Amino acid sequence: MKMSSDEKDSNDDIWEQIQEQKSMQRSDVAEETDPSRKMLKSWLNNTFRIKMTDGRILIGMFVCTDADANVILGLTSEFTENGGEERVLGLVMIPGRYIVSIELDEANLVNAN
After folding, report:
1. Which of the residues 24, 52, 71, 76 could staple to 60 if both were Cys, CB 3.0 to 4.6 A apart?
2. How many CA atoms, within 13 angstroms, populate the side-chain half-sphere of residue 92?
3. Number of helices followed by number of strands (H, E) in the chain
4. In angstroms, what CA-CA distances link 21 with 18, 28, 34, 36, 58?
C-alpha cells in the first residue's frame, strides 16, 4: 500500500507529538522526585538575606538561581554591616562568587507545608 505525501507528513507529525509528550512526562517525573528541585521550588518567593564579600547585606524575594550559583532577588533592599540606611534596589542579580552566606527568612515563609 502506497501512502500519499500528505498522509506520510501527517503521520510523522503525530509521531513527533507523541515523542514530545513522552519526553515531557519523563522530565516531569524527574522534576517531582529530585529533592534539590523540590527544595528550590519551596524557596520561591520567600525572603532571603544574602551577605556579600564587600560587607553589604541584601534582603529580597528569591526569584531564581543558576548553575554558577548566581541568585536573583526581587523587591530587594541593601543594608551595610555597620547599620547604614536602607537603599531600595528592586530586582538584582548577585554573582555567586560574591556571596558569603544566604539565609532564608523563616518568619515570612510563603510556601509553608
Report:
1. 76
2. 19
3. 2, 5
4. 5, 10, 20, 24, 41
Q: What is the grid cell recorded at 19?
A: 515523542
Query: In the structure grid, which three cell numbers stand for residue 38, read together?
Result: 523540590
Judge whether 61 and 88 are in contact, CB under 8 Å. no
pTM for the model: 0.66
Residue 71 has phi, psi (to 5 degrees) of -125, 140
Task: Dump pLDDT digits (tens) for 53-110.
Answer: 999 999 999 999 999 999 999 999 999 888 778 999 999 999 999 999 999 987 766 6
Question: Phi-psi bin for 70: left (phi > 0), alpha (psi -120 to 50), beta?
Answer: beta
- For 63, half-sphere exposure in the C-beta direction (CA atoms, 13 angstrom radius) is 14
Cα gap 45→36, rounded to integer Å: 17
